[in-house]
Write a structure and sequence with these properties.
With 178 residues, this protein is mainly beta. It has a domain of 111 residues: Phosphorylase Kinase, domain 1 (2-Layer Sandwich), CATH 3.30.200. It is 10% helix and 38% strand.
Length: 178
């Protein structure tokens, strides 16, 4: 593969607000993987335009503490530098340490054993899908819960999901089935 074009930064491309506005997760088994790429339909440019669910299954939206959700993606070259794996992580914080939050955490940890798929909506209005490739789904990497030490400290649970896959996450322009 060779370079086919450069990349320029313009006023429009340099104004991209950071942060995650919404997080949607689905059980991998709830997505009809016989359609497209892991259940996602791709347009001619490779952008995902739709996702097909099994029957009445849906994605679920997860709220998080304001300004605590983040997506990270990093390519790692193989030994000869001619192939890559992509490490994709989603991190979000649940405030407080309530029974409801602990139950949601327990369900996410147990569900991730079979694999999860994510669609995240960023504050710039774009959405991205990842964890959709077979055997490359998201799983809980860590989920520490802390009480804090002082009365003014925050109680929270920080969930980090990870997928190590063979392609970068893809832009998603469809409607998330919730």
């Amino acid at each position: 593969m060779s370079i086919t074009a450069g990349f320029g930064i313009t006023c429009a491309t340099s104004n991209c607000p950071a942060g995650i506005a919404r997080v949607y997760l689905a059980n991998k088994d709830d997505i009809d993987t016989t359609v497209g790429i892991g259940g996602f339909t791709a347009g001619t440019t490779g952008i995902f335009t739709a996702v097909t669910m099994n029957g009445a299954d849906t994605f679920f939206e997860f709220d998080f503490q304001d300004y605590t959700a983040e997506v990270r993606e990093e390519p790692t070259p193989n030994a000869n530098g001619c192939g890559y794996s992509w490490q994709q992580q989603l991190e979000m914080t649940f405030p407080c340490w309530t029974v409801e939050a602990r139950n949601a955490l327990d369900e996410l940890v147990n569900s991730s054993c079979c694999g999860l798929v994510a669609i995240v909506e960023r504050f710039d209005g774009s959405s991205w899908a990842f964890g959709y490739l077979e055997k490359r789904h998201l799983k809980v990497l860590s989920a520490p819960a802390v009480t804090g030490k002082a009365i003014t400290d925050s109680q929270s649970m920080v969930l980090t999901f990870q997928a190590i896959t063979t392609e970068p996450m893809r832009s998603f322009t469809g409607t998330v089935p919730v």
